Every structure is written in structure tokens, then in C-alpha cells.
Amino acid sequence: RKTALNALYGLMQSADPIRVLVTGAAGQIAYSLLYSIAKGDVFGKDQPIILVLLDIPPMLPVLDGVVMELQDCALPLLREVIPTDKVEVGFKDLDAAILVGSMPRKEGMERKDLLKANVAIFKTQGAALEKYAKKTVRVLVVGNPANTNCLIASKSAPSIPKENFSCLTRLDHNRARSQVAMRCGVPADAVKNVIIWGNHSSTQYPDVHHAMVNVHGKEVEAYGAVKDDSWLKGDFISTVQLRGAAVIKARKLSSAMSAAKAICDHMRDWWFGTLDGEFMSMGVYAGGNSYGIPEDLIYSFPVHIKNKSWNIHDGLPVNDFSRAKMDATAAELVEERDTALSFLSQ
Amino acid sequence: MRLLPLRLRIPADPIRVLVTGAAGQIAYSLLYSIAKGDVFGKDQPIILVLLDIPPMLPVLDGVVMELQDCALPLLREVIPTDKVELGFKDLDAAILVGSMPRKEGMERKDLLKANVAIFKTQGAALEKYAKKSVRVLVVGNPANTNCLIASKSAPSIPKENFSCLTRLDHNRARSQVAMRCGVPADAVKNVIIWGNHSSTQYPDVHHAMVNVHGKEVEAYNAVKDDSWLKGDFISTVQLRGAAVIKARKLSSAMSAAKAICDHMRDWWFGTLDGEFMSMGVYAGGNSYGIPEDLIYSFPVHIKNKSWNIHDGLPINDFSRAKMDATAAELVEERDTALSFLSQ
Fold first, then answer.
1. Which residues does UniProt mark as catalytic (chain A) (predicted)?
2. What's the pLDDT tens digit per position in B283-326?
């Protein structure tokens, strides 16, 4: 048995490693995320990883501490850890990029200032992807405002397919799933096909008109399982929209653990695909969408994923209630985009 | 491999798992892994009990919210509390992370006294409320002595059910040797951490093996640098905690959480043939000449949720001196702690 294990060991470790970048790598969300990536939860238990950690120069000593801890985790898949503050090292030959770092809102900062600062960051990072990364790179933007930052990065990397860029709405998706599950007294994975439409902001629209709940082995429509339309159209929506603030209020820190989990879910599904009959929420390029959403946006849709490619789940009937909410969040995104593009051209 | 959704697999009865210091840093890195199934298995539903002190209850609420937002199928229930009668009730496993941290100006004696009080209370609560089959892992420092106090305060729970964490040091030792040899961390096995989870711990690789290109090589031969293995390697592992704090300005939550998961998972599912792991366990009946009434880190095999010290390893003079030094520190800690216990 020992000889066989040794031989198998040799085979396993011979798979080519992939290069995965995490920005904001010295920060809170990365701290909850890196271990899961390095362990194999995202890219698979046989996929060795070269983990590239990018942050700003003042954070390099803290980043050294993170590198020490990753070593101390004694993880077999972690081929190499590369801490850096240089984009030419950070973005080189990437297979995947998780852009967590962004300019946080400081006290007294106007929304416009926040947008301007982040446009600068994501323009630089988009250009670095264009110049250094593989053209097949999959990019997940987490740093807020995620949708608009994602759009800016994509526009700054014109030779990388727009479909390779996405932003995170999976946290909102998981929150919506969990709220419905708790309401119905079932485990979270008994709820499927919730949808988050739009912007990862307080205008997001958590929609369960097409969701299904498994109750005692039977698939029931969510509205039928919950039996409380006013909750589903009222408090359920605001709870999910405002959950981030509720966590900050309680913890005095933002939601790193659950954000990291959502990042893992998003990347893993992008890599390995979704199950038949199930769709997930991803912020993706709206070009060619059949739901009447303005095209030049990164907008969260229900998607299927196969062979590392997503497709929007088309054909869902959209009632007036949903239409209004989907349009409202689109309008916010149009405004954000136009402000951001004005900064981009300066 | 795609797992069938939980609803299509045979659901098992949930186990009750307590984490103390649940609003703190280490717990924050740990709870997700437990709730995900990494420790107790992918088919084992869990009732997670989170205990902390009253001022931390609002923060604990935030942690509960986040666990819900993780949408984890195995998490049957989350119970936040500051009451021991709720926290320790019917437990299958207890991970005691919370302890009194060293404050500025605090003497080592004061720290020990404060922690004796905490672990006496928690040991008594285990005695009164938990299942007799409960497995207890003490993480909060001074871990070995806190563990001993808890065990002594729970006389009808077998001493063998109590352990303290030295797996972090074990993983650090593995990793240092692996990096030196240019191999992945799991190509190094059978390192040993002897003694106290403190700066007197003895990381010993005399019996460790390194897989180099498919061949098992003794660690001393793979590394080819005896003076490093007897010098800087040891001090690097001993002082690693402080090095991480210096860099991060916070202590090592991520790697500590990983070590806790490794320790509990191996306790639950056993070690592989030919491999042993480091655990702080009751030294009663040990064959290595270590004083008996201690919690001391030894190399152990685990099967059917029970550990056995790996006996019969030859001990040279170098190792003997180091093993005795860390034992002496533990004897002193114990005697000080017991004097407080009897007050």
C-alpha cells in the first residue's frame, strides 16, 4: 500500500500548477479566503497552485506574516507563494485573478470621490491583465463598487474576452438562499434558483419567483413553500439588501468569512460548472441579454456554467414587480458607469 | 467530485460541538471549516454551540449572521450563549479556544491564576453537562496546564478524552523541513513535538521521513544539515508564533485554525498506518520517562477515536535533555496552578 501511495503521490504532484492572484492580500477578506484556495476547495483537490499575493507597499510586512501562516498550514497543493507590490509580478501569466483590494470609503468621502479613486485602481489593474496575464484568465472583481470596477477593468483589457470578467453577487445570493431556508426550516442547499439581479449594492433585487425549495423530498415553488408573499416582497428583500450593514454593526468589521465563502463558490462553479437545472447569480457583461437590461454594464444575472463559460438563463417570465426593481438597479448602474467613464477619459 | 445534496444522502444524527472564545480571532478562522464538514466529515450534521463572555454577545450575533450567510447544508443549528449550562450541554466535542490573554504588566503567575479559574469552571461544566464520551481540545494558553486543570475538574470523564494543541507546532516543523528539502509539506511525515506548547517545546525530526522523488528518506539525510536541524530549525519553530505576531500585528489565527481542524479530524477518523501526529495528552503510563501527572505532547497513533503513544523510539542524549527541560517547565506550571486550585 505504501509503494502505491508513493507512486500516486508522484503522479498527483505532477499536474501543472495554475497561477492565481489575490489583491488586497494583506486584508481581512483575503485572510479568510487564502486558506480555502490553497487547500483545494476552489480549483480542485489535485490542482497545485502558485498563489500570488498583491497589496500596496505599506502592507508588505503584514503580507510577510500571511505568507508565514500559509507555510505553517502545511498545505500540499500550495506549490509557491509570491508576495508582491508590483503589478508586473502580480499579473504575470495568470489563470485566475480575484481582485479584492479597492479604495475603502473614508469618513467625509463623497461617493464621487470613491468612484474616482477606484476607477484609477481598476484601470491600472485592467491594463496589467491586458499586458501580463494569459488571455484565458478568469477575473472576479470583489472590491466595491464591484460591478463598475469590473466594467472599468474589462474596458482597460480590450483583448481579453468580456466574458472572462465577472463581479461577486454570490454573497447576496447565498444570503437570499439562507433567509428562505431558515423561513422554511430546511438546510440551505434545499433552496435553489434564487436570483440576484443588478448591482451589488442596496438596489440589488433578490428574486425568488423562480426558486424551488425541497420540502420533505418534494420540490415546491418558493412562494408556495414560504406562504408569505408580503415578506418575500418586503422584509426578505430589505434583509438581504442591508445584510452587509447589519453584520458590520454587530461585528464592528465587515463580513469576511461569508464573503470568502461566496468567492470560493463563485470561482468553483466557474471552474467546474453548475448542476443541471440549477443556476447561480454572477455579475456579468450584459451585452446581448434578453431581459431588456442596458448592454454596456456588468449586471448580475442568473447563469448556467459549463466548460468555464457562463450563459444567462433566458426566458424567465418577469412580472411588473420584478421589472420595476430590475430597472431601478440598472439605472443606478448606468449612472455609476457614466460617472466612472468620465473619470476614465480624464 | 460532485457530492449529492444532503437531502439525497442518508442524514445522520447531528453532533454537538462547542467552541469557546467564539467571538474571537481564532474562532473566526475556524468555525467555517467546522461547519463545512472539513473536521467531522461531509455527511455529519452539526449543532454548533458558540460560547463567549457577556460583553462579546453582540459580536457573536454578527458571527451567527455570517454563518447563516455561508449557506452551509451541514449546519443544523447555531447556538450563541454566555451560559455554561447551555454551552456545555450534551457535547460530543469541545474546542476551548477562549482563555485570559496576557495584559500589559501581567506577571506569568497572574496569568496562570486567571486561567486556572476559567478552566476549573469549564472542567466542572463538562463534568456536569457534557456527554462522558466528549472529546476536549484545549487551545487557549497556557494550553497544557489549562488542559490538566480542566481534566482534574472533570473526574468522571476519562483523562484520555482531554488533549491540548501542539499540532500547529507540528505543522510548522513539517513545513520548515519541506521547504528546506524543496518538497510539498505532506511529503514530510513523523516529525514530533515533545512537551509544552511554549518556547521550551522540542521539535524532533530524528524519526521523520521525507518523500524525495517517490523514495522515503530519513529527514536528517534529506536535509543534510545537522547543525540546522539541531539549531535554527528548532528555534524557528519554537519562536514562530512571535514572528507571525511581529509581522501581522495579530496572532496566527489562520494557521491555528488549520491545526485545530487537523487535530480534531485525526482524532475523529484516525491516523494513517505508519504515521503518527503530535498531541498534548495525559502522560500517565508513558514509556519515555516523562513525569506522569502532566499534559505533555507526544507522538500518537489514533484509531477508533482513541490515541496511543508511539512507543519504542530511541532517544539520544540531545533529545533527552530537551524532552526533560520542557517537562520541568510543565511540572513547575502544574505545581503553581494546583496551588491556586486548592485556594
1. 200
2. 999 999 999 999 999 999 999 999 999 999 999 999 999 999 99
Q: A114-162 pLDDT, tens per residue? A: 899 999 999 999 999 999 999 999 999 999 999 999 999 999 999 999 9
CA distance B293 to B148: 8
ipTM > 0.90, yes or no: yes
B133 touches chain A (CB under 8 A): no
Facing residue for A72 by CB, picked from B63, B240, B249: B240
CA distance B164 to A265: 33
- With CA atoms as reference, the chain A residue closest to B262 would be A73
DSSP state, A104? P
Output DSSP code: residue A198: B
Q: How far apart are CA B327 and CA B312, in angstroms?
A: 19
Residue B183 DSSP label: S
Mutate to test the interface with A, among B56, B66, B215 (most CBs of A within 10 A): B66
Angle at CA of residue A168, ends A136 and B63, nearest 5°: 135
Whole-number Cα distances in Å, B206 to A74, A250, B203, B210, B220? 19, 49, 9, 12, 7
Distance in angstroms (rounded) separating the CA atoms of residues A253 and A258 = 12
Q: Tell if the CB–CB gap between B62 and A249 is shorter than 8 Å.
A: yes
Residue B161 CA: distances (Å) to CA of B51, B131, B135: 20, 11, 5
Backbone angles phi, psi at B312, to 5 degrees: 85, 5
Interface test with B, best of A33, A37, A69, A255 (most B CBs within 10 A): A69
- The C-alpha of B38 sits at a distance from chain A's nearest C-alpha, in angstroms, of 10
Could you read off the pLDDT of B132-170 as tens digits, one per residue? Answer: 999 999 999 999 999 999 999 999 999 999 999 999 999
CB pair distance less than 8 Å for B240 and A68: yes
What gap in Å lies between CA A163 and CA A286, rounded to an integer? Answer: 10
